[in-house]
Hints:
Elements: E1 3-5, H1 10-19, H2 33-38, E2 46-55, H3 68-78, E3 82-90, H4 101-109, E4 112-121, E5 131-139, E6 143-153, E7 164-176, E8 179-187, H5 195-209, E9 215-220, E10 238-239, E11 258-262, E12 267-273, E13 284-291
Parallel strand pairs: 2-3, 8-9
Antiparallel strand pairs: 1-6, 2-13, 3-5, 4-5, 6-7, 7-8, 9-11, 10-11, 12-13
Amino acid sequence: MDRTIRRPAHRALAAAVLAATAVLGAAVPGATAADRAAGSRPGPPRVPLRVATYNIHAGAGEDGVFHLGRTAAAIRDLDADVVGLQEVDVRWGARSGFTDEARELAVRLGMRVFFAPIYDLPGDPAGGERRRFGVAVLSRFPMRDARNHEITRLSTQTPDPVPAPAPGFAEVTVRVRGASAHVYATHLDYRSDPSVRRAQVDDMLGVLAGDTGPKVLLGDFNAEPDAPELARLWGPLADAAPNGGKTYPAADPVRRIDLVTVSPDVTVLRAHASVSPASDHRPVVADLLLRRRAR
């Protein structure tokens, strides 16, 4: 069953988000990356949008040191309008100083955020705040219909786990100057057995099939695009950065497992992996064009 947060208006939006762990920051003033990417391109029919995906390793860099300011700087350098994040801690534990990383990054970057926990566990017995870990979407543009969908998962928090539906597949609808897009953030299973990832692909495609209009799926897939378990993605979606460079491990990457993928009605202008020491993954950034809605 989906955990759903609906955002009808800006002020009501902020209150609803705080109540359901989808936190809103202030919008960025002035020009956005979309404005700059558009340049002097003639006439409307398409709207530019820069997106990125980044596994932030819970705010720890290649050196293993937790430094959320460094993480925020790396995201800022991407100059993306929408960013899908993986491995986000929200008061998860000592490794990230019990920080609400989703909220803190939103504040530092002046962006809106929706956080979708994979794990939502009790705090300490003395009544500490709940411990959460999952994915998030940052956006310079308004978000609505934010949902935390369930897909098949093999838990890392229970002994002898079996594959079962669990949350942590984020979806938001982003409104961009007369255009809109469904943006999804995902983090697929890391184990060598591909069966859970294959089930996750089927589950994600089921969610995407229920939506109409442009779609952008961002994530750490823990498999390269030619992996058999990802094969069903290609057709409904396309790989935005087939020549964009490998992403993991960040220092000397040998695998391209962090992907920006788009539906056929989204045009990709350019896409590439970006070098940064702020995580053990490299982020991927892509400039896209969205079709305006018919009036």
